[in-house]
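#onboarding

Welcome to the new folks! Below is a worked example of what a typical request in this channel looks like: someone posts a single protein sequence, and someone else replies with the predicted structure as tokens. Don't worry about understanding the tokens yet, we'll cover that in week two.

Example request:
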Amino acid sequence: MPTSHQRRVRQFMRLAGQDTPKDLEIPDEATRVLRARLILEEALETVDALGVSVALGDADLHYDALRLTVEREADLEGVVDGCADISVVTIGTLVAFGVDDEPVLEEVDRANLRKFGPGSYARQDGKWIKPPDWEPPDIMGAVGLGGRGAASATRASGDSPAEQGAEA
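Example response:
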């Protein structure tokens, strides 16, 4: 049984014109490359937000410099295990920051579904590009820190998010 979050993600994918099969299947190469690209992009953005840089040897690793190539058939068991592990690690990171996942996932899902407004389109590689007037998710509101601009106010005031939340 899919979670409500998975149902919202499926809706997003359908709106973006991506396949959402009901039965087990190995997607085509273009879909596999798209999923790999999206996973790496989000992972590297998160690592950067953690204040950590990534390097390969002496060179910094940047998403735009990555080249993805399909070299073999997909391993369904390995993909499912890896996605479950990624979910555990990312939810564990929210736990480590004291963040409840459900309100954040709901806010991000709502923002993702707003990406289908006028001016949005699918790139050739399948990634959906948001419309010019799209508003990002209100992450700080979802975590209970006052909504848009709260992160800037926290930095400006010198209060930690925990201290600011305690005042509310």
